[in-house]
Amino acid sequence: MQHDVVLIPGDGIGPEVAEATRRVLAASGAEINWIERHAGLAAIDRGADTVLPATTIEAIKKYGTALKGPCTTPIGGGFSSVNVALRKTLNLYGAVRPVRSIDGIKTRYTDIDIVVIRENTEGLYSGIENRITEGVVTSLKVATLEACERIARFAFRYARSRGRKKVTAFHKANIMKLSDGLFLDCAKRVHEAEFNDILYDEHIIDAGSMRLVQNPSQYDIILCENLYGDVISDLCSGLVGGLGVTPGANFGDDHAVFEAVHGSAPDIAGRNVANPLALIASAVLMLRHLAEKTGDESLFSARERIRAAYGEALSAGEKTRDLGGELGTREFADALIARMR
After folding, report:
1. How many CA atoms are closer than 13 Å to the CA of 339, on its beta-carbon side?
2. pLDDT the model gives residue 76
3. Which of 11, 68, 93, 125 is catalytic?
4. What is the pLDDT of residue 80?
5. Ramachandran region of residue 317, left (φ > 0), alpha (ψ -120 to 50) or beta?
6. Catalytic annotation, pick one of 206, 253, 254, 293
7. Total number of domains constituting the chain
């Protein structure tokens, strides 16, 4: 069974890691028909008048699933975030970032297995900012009953479907009593009404961050509003080797976009040194999604072949430079492909 997937290579190192991922998936036996579209500076370079062209959005709506490389977002000015716009436009409200210890990557911890679930459409990332007067700006944090209930239900459903035992909400409701208070109220109400088979607790985010670095094994699923989820998922990535090895997925009711959560790293673009593992691992998440969606059991096999290949390669010392190895982007993909032959 062939599956149509939109591929957005992205900017900077994006095209390199996307090509490596495409090659690895082909070697795994997964039958993917790639529909290439563009976003970010890559779209502008190809003549688009916006960083998120309508043709890209239309393709994702048509085919339902996309794999996306990193897109450049300017700091402090310039155009708005492509990632934020994509999530809002397609209503990709549920971000899922699994963070697991990986064989062959030595870190302080050996037993990390956490999933960060992040509300993806509102909060401070709504981008509602105003300049009141010279030297004074405001930023509005948005929380709605609908979105808070929706992400809570999404998190508990995810926990149940994956055999997870506990959901912990991170918050700052001691200070932001209305916005974070609503987030907590919705999580508690959804838990009590529909998911009392799943354990639930709440941690203030600063204390929770301390607990994460002291003893991450106490966490299973961490539920966050938008900004907190962005920060906490990156913190958790640092526990297992960094952003170069951790995948990401964004789910809505009708569409799903899988992406590496690291940046476009223009300073190393075109040098064949970027680690493609984060995008490869995101594609592994995509294969599971497609398998569950279509019933194609062969995708589960392809997924396991890729996971085994990168576990064996890393354990054998076949690593990119960010992990202390010597392999380039293409050579790391070659190493995985060789282990799947």
Report:
1. 21
2. 47
3. 125
4. 63
5. left
6. 206
7. 2
Q: 326 pLDDT exceeds 60?
A: yes
Average pLDDT of the segment spanning 209-223: 96
Q: Is residue 113 domain-shared with residue 235, that is, in the same domain?
A: yes
Residue 100, in any domain of the structure: no
Q: Is 103 a catalytic residue?
A: no
Q: Beta partners for 204? A: 171
With 0.70 as the threshold, say if the pTM is over it: yes
230 part of the active site: yes
For residue 164, give its domain range: 108-239
pLDDT in tens, 183-211: 999 999 999 999 999 999 999 999 999 99
Q: What is the DSSP letter of 270?
A: T
Q: Which of 63, 103, 113, 172 is catalytic?
A: 172
Give the chain's mean pLDDT. 94
109 is catalytic: no
Residue 75 has pLDDT above 70, yes or no: no
Closest CA to 146 of 100, 93, 107, 196: 93
309: Cα within 13 Å, side-chain hemisphere:
25
CATH number at residue 48: 3.40.718.10
- Same domain for 30 and 68, yes or no, is yes
Catalytic residue among 230, 310, 319, 334: 230
For residue 206, indicate whether it is catalytic.
Answer: yes
